[in-house]
Amino acid sequence: MSDAEGTPENPWQLRTAPGSSEYTMHRDGDELVCQVGSTTLRYQARAIEDLHAWLAAQGDWVPLGAADEQKPAADGTVEAFGRAEDNPVGGWYGLRKGYRGRFGMYLPPLLEHLGLVELEHNARNNRVRAL
């Protein structure tokens, strides 16, 4: 991984866990900018370290549980952690109202790319665990 990777000029090139969608992410100050087609989602950049620490504390496989903001997240999933009132930021890591969900869809592949987690790549019901 080059030092310049993850910048607006050289974003991380990622695929969702099932491999069905491509997207990019890059760091912009304290934000992660996730570009999925014409849709832009923004997450707090500290989500990388916080999610990795949470996964390590779980000690085993955790379901992704990706869900849109308007839908509930299943308990015990990465998605639920990304919006839980007791997570390190006290709620949503997503920053753009109406587009704060899908934490479980877009963050785990980035952590895998960074070498922090092992991620399943099944057609559905994927899980992740810290390395």
From TrEMBL:
Annotated DUF6855 domain ranges read 5-131
> Domain of life here?
Bacteria
Q: What is the name attached to this protein's record?
A: DUF6855 domain-containing protein
- Cite the residue spans of the region called Disordered: 1-21
Matches recorded under Pfam families = DUF6855
